[in-house]
Write a structure and sequence with these properties.
mainly beta
Length: about 100
């Protein structure tokens, strides 16, 4: 069981003014690793940002990622829960189709 104090550790919604519309809410806490990933963040206007991040916890449907909103500045580290389709280990171009 996770204490409420731990749950607030990752509640960083008020740290910056940037909110992303693809954030998953209400997912249980708990660290599982620190796997390098690429996180797709969807802004309120529908534009996308792709950030280098670390997957630190996951469920069947969501991944908790940590990323630096100012790259290289450890103080800007934010944690967000994203759907599994918004987190990738690699980005590959679409496969070429035979014509």
């Amino acid at each position: 069981m996770v204490s409420t104090a731990l749950a607030h550790l990752f509640d960083t919604g008020h740290v910056t003014g940037v909110e992303y519309s693809n954030v998953v809410k209400g997912v249980p806490m708990g660290g599982m690793g620190a796997i390098p990933v690429i996180a797709r963040l969807v802004c309120a206007d529908g534009t996308e940002e792709w950030w280098p991040a670390r997957a630190v916890s996951w469920t069947e449907d969501a991944v908790l990622v940590g990323y630096e909103s100012s790259p290289g500045d450890q103080k800007s580290l934010r944690h967000l829960w994203l759907g599994i389709d918004d987190v990738a280990r690699v980005i590959r171009p679409p496969a070429a189709r035979d014509r």
